[in-house]
Specification:
Hypothetical protein af1432, Molybdopterin biosynthesis moea protein, domain 2, 5-stranded antiparallel beta sheet, single chain, about 375 residues, globular, two-stranded antiparallel sheet, alpha+beta
Length: about 375
């Protein structure tokens, strides 16, 4: 299978993976042959990419940090709990089941990630790149857990970190949706209202008996930055807890690679490049370096163009050098089909480099 920009879909192409709505329900199922109406519907959803079956890449498997079953279960649990809070008119006593619900969920997530520890990389889900609070919360949790395991945290530390990551944006359940989804510029007062989600999240979590206080501080501090330019308290350097620093990095990344009403989604390599401009000023340099070393900036299935002119599809990610993937070469430097296609391992072919994304390469499908 391969990732194709929605703008380049054509009738007759066959979906290679399910497409879900924000409630976790299947909108279009794997194996469906796309019609013009379906394509218009996908374009109306503003999705960036979808996975399509392709005879030249049919054996390529998209790796997962956790199973689709666990992912959907987690999103529905987050959605149910967050919506319950949204319906409450007060904070105290409205979320007493929070710790038990998410404590069990964290155990399942940790077990699944740990079982794939040897091949553990941050895998950006390119075919669901529209922003959704529930999916964003899960993504930040999954990515942060990978970083925490790589950093060497204990299981107990990982659970505190994971809960903080999963619930870092819980305060947004009390933010007016019209502010979160406004396409235009916000006034200072409106932006301050959005910033309050950090303090609200802390208030929700700090007195919950099954939520560690440190997890609550993750909700409070995840927008703080090393140089003091963050919020809500303008903390600097070591005054920011390390867990909040990790979550701040991952939260920024997932926001960048997600489409919002006011901005398009970035590709993973673009987001990492932007984040590195804040190394040592906004983000802790060693933490950001570990993040860079674990993120697959060129996802499996993506069509890429080499600096020598060949194009191909990313077929495999190396867990220890995810920025140097294996590419299945499909066309030569003159744009002519390669018969048969061959695998080029960029971790071994060090003179070859990815120069860009080959979004227009759909002729072989």
């Amino acid at each position: 299978m391969r990732l194709i920009p929605v703008k380049l879909l054509s009738p007759g192409m066959i979906l290679a993976r399910n497409i879900y709505n924000s409630d976790g329900l299947v909108l279009l199922a794997e194996g469906v042959k796309l019609s013009e109406g379906m394509i218009r519907r996908l374009q109306g959803m503003d999705l960036g990419y979808v996975y399509i079956k392709d005879k030249l890449t049919e054996d390529i498997v998209i790796p997962e940090l956790v199973s689709e079953e666990t992912r959907l279960k987690a999103i529905r649990s987050i959605q149910s709990s967050f919506r319950n809070l949204e319906s409450q008119s007060h904070l105290k006593g409205s979320f007493l089941h929070l710790g038990k619900t998410f404590g069990g969920l964290m155990d399942s997530i940790m077990d699944e990630i740990a079982s794939h520890q040897e091949s553990m990389v941050l895998l950006t889900d390119m075919h669901t790149n529209d922003y959704n609070l529930y999916r964003h919360s899960l993504n930040v949790c999954l990515y942060t857990m990978v970083l925490g395991i790589s950093y060497g945290y204990s299981k107990d530390e990982l659970k505190v970190l994971g809960l903080g990551a999963l619930l870092h944006d819980i305060g947004k359940t009390r933010t007016p949706p019209e502010l979160l989804n406004r396409p235009g510029a916000l006034s200072k007062e409106e932006f301050r209202e959005i910033q309050r989600h950090t303090e609200i999240g802390f208030k929700i979590l700090k007195d919950e008996p099954n939520i560690p206080l440190l997890s609550a501080h993750c909700a409070l501090q995840h927008h703080e930055r090393l140089d003091g330019s963050g919020y809500p308290r303008g903390l600097k350097g070591d005054d920011i807890h390390d867990y909040a620093k990790w979550i701040g990095i991952v939260d920024s990344y997932d926001a960048m690679v997600s489409r919002r009403v006011y901005k398009p989604a970035m590709l993973p390599h673009e987001a990492v490049e932007v984040m590195y401009t804040g190394s040592g000023t906004l983000y802790e340099q060693p933490f950001l370096a570990l993040f860079r070393d674990r993120v697959a900036i060129y996802p499996v299935g993506l069509t890429v163009r080499l600096h020598t002119g060949e194009t191909g599809v990313v077929s495999r990610i190396h867990p220890h050098v995810p920025h140097r993937p294996v590419v299945r070469i499909l066309t030569d430097s003159e744009g002519q089909p390669v018969t048969p296609p061959y695998e080029l391992d960029l971790s071994e072919s060090l003179t070859k480099m990815i120069a860009g994304i080959g979004d227009n390469q759909t002729q072989s499908i």
